[in-house]
Amino acid sequence: MDGQMMDYQLTVPAIVRRCEAMSGAREVVSRLPDRSIHRTTYAAVIERSRRLAGALAALGIGDGDRVGTLCWNHHAHLEAYLAVPSLGAVVHTLNPRLSADDLAFIASDAGDRALIVDAPLLPVLASFRARTAIEHVIVVGEADELPHDALPYEELLAGGEPRDPVEPHEGQAAAMCYTSGTTGRPKGVLYSHRSTALHSLLSLAADGLAIAEPDVVMPVVPMFHVNAWGLPFTSVLAGAKLVLPGPHLDPESLLELIQGERVTLTAGVPTVWLPLLDALDREPGRWDVSCLRALVIGGSAAPPALIQAFDERHGVPVLHAWGMTEMSPIGTIARVPAGLADAAPGEQLAARASQGRSLPFVEVRARGDRGFAPRDGTTMGELEVRGPTVARSYYGGAGAEQFTEDGWFRTGDVVTVDRFGQIQIQDRAKDLVKSGGEWISSVDLENALMGHVAVAEAAVIAIPDERWQERPLAVVVLRDGATATADELREHLGRTYPKWWLPDRVEFVDAIPRTATGKFLKTALRERYAGP
Ligand code: AMP
Known about the structure:
Bound molecules: adenosine monophosphate
Shape: globular
Radius of gyration: 23 Å
């Protein structure tokens, strides 16, 4: 017998309807590329998104069309997030930090028909547009020189007839983002209205990010990286005030916004938070960050020392999360499980520094050499996941080998799972160091190195070795004015790890190259150091 409940469609327009009915007066604050602060409300953003939808429809954009964005975090980008899916079209965020070749590939593979671009990013567009089929270019902000066929965003909106949303089916695509492509070509992930709505709902849950209307949310993670981890949609659903920092991600600009707007939750990759911690440490008492109830770290492992430093020195609670472009992106969040409520502080810190436990309906399993790994916290295996916010395939059928026959997604992350279901990432499968037939976790070594007082950043890679097959090499950036020798760092690691884990070589550098999403670019390090 079927149940008799409504088949209510979980869609982006449904997210918007709730916000409009209840939280229209909540603010959306943006720092624009020229550094000025722009203030508006959800009511105004929603009204403008209807005009944008009308204008796009007048250009012939409709059901299933892809509309690209090449924008930083600001209100106009949010308007595109809401307008494009309300037409039944797909908002496709492009990462301006990618190479022209990657952007040309991604925009043509996706078949973007129109593109909304920040004026300062026009040179990026010019570097690849000729290799795409983009028909319409819409420019946000003032530019000295516009491409001959460009449409200024504000003029387009002023002339746009407000258009009510269509009623998309929840299975329809709402948004699109390409994987960072560290292995092979970038692959397109198509988020449905339903996965977007469910990911937002899960982020509201107390065991998720617990976002609610009184929150002030500042996604430092760019809106071109997995929809800023879903935070714009989540904040609209909750009616939480949004603070969008534009391209200005230096510690001073971020701290000004946190203090000035009384931000309660912010989120970004460790490489954003390491310099911010340094800024707080350098001038104790200059900044008031007592408003923060959660600083979410994800995208790469959060070193326990970073978690502890924010907590203990600055009273900022860190929330460590793991996810992937293919997972909308949040997969797990680290909180102390009820079973460890009375555990020693060290054990509780270890739980918070693990990748944590999966969101409701996101299931995890680790596939080892001999079947699925037991949940013993020590046996390693490749993490596989499934759930309503996880991709079931890539756009155009690329990367089919990443999906198992029984419908799970193979993450490529090597993990242990413990009795509480907490996962601990040991490495990307390709980053593990295999020395003399035994695995060494580069993530563990990096975390331990970043726990040394003199170390600002550290990345560990495998380099070929005649005798041991591979050995770890550490690339280290020291803190300003600090000193440490390779032997001192090895001695520090030797307190926790066996001798054969210790890197034979430590290279001191001024900066570690980063990927377009701010992670350490290990392929570049391998190219530089893995030779003879
Ligand atoms: P992306 O799809 O670009 O966001 O990259 C996803 C990958 O980033 C994951 O498969 C992990 O290897 C890595 N990652 C994301 N979050 C974390 C985390 N909290 N700890 C360790 N690795 C992470």
